[in-house]
Amino acid sequence: MLTDLTTAFGWISSGYLSFDLGHIRCGTTKCDNGSLQIEDFVAIPDLIAGALSEQFRSSLALGLWDDKYFCLSGPDMNEKACPITFWFGTSQEFLKKHLFVIDPGTNESTHKVSWLNFTH
């Protein structure tokens, strides 16, 4: 999955950057040196990922999941997740927010990738 993430990051960043990044590497919190700085760095994205996962779980349970739409809340959604998904879904001029959903395909070598872009 880390290789897939690296490929997706390269593909997406090429649409935003006017220069070639060259070699791209992705790391995980496993490479932290013990200072927990990497853990701190990923804390907010981790909260966002958890809230969005909650939103997807709720949408799937209610039969509301659609590749073209993203619901920010639902009757079955956790109260703690709502403010985070509302923040993520709002457009802010200086902060671009993208959501990539990578679903397993029918076999181990395929994945379905959905890309949601939150713009104003």
Describe this structure in words.
By secondary structure, the chain is α+β, with helices and mostly antiparallel strands. It folds into two domains: 35 residues, no CATH class; 79 residues, no CATH class. 38% of the residues lie in helices and 13% in strands. β1 and β2 form a beta hairpin. The longest helix is centred in the middle third of the chain and has 19 residues. The chain is globular. The mean pLDDT is 76.
Highlighted features:
single chain, 120 residues, alpha+beta, 2 domains, two-stranded antiparallel ribbon, 2 strands
Which secondary structure elements does this structure contain, and how are they paired or packed?
Elements lengths: L1 H12 L23 H5 L1 H19 L19 H9 L7 E8 L6 E8 L2
Antiparallel strand pairs: 1-2
Helix pairs in contact: 3-4
Give me the strand/helix succession: HHHHEE
**In total, how many beta strands?**
2
Main sheet: which strands, in order across?
1-2
Structural Rg? 16 Å
Main sheet, how many strands, which sense, barrel?
A: 2 strands, antiparallel
Cα distance, first to last residue? Answer: 31 Å
User: What is the overall shape?
Assistant: globular
Low-confidence stretches: none
User: What is the averaged pLDDT score?
Assistant: 76
Secondary-structure-derived class: alpha+beta
Question: How many individual helices?
Answer: 4
| Percent of residues in β-strands | 5-15%
Percent in helix:
25-40%
Number of domains: 2
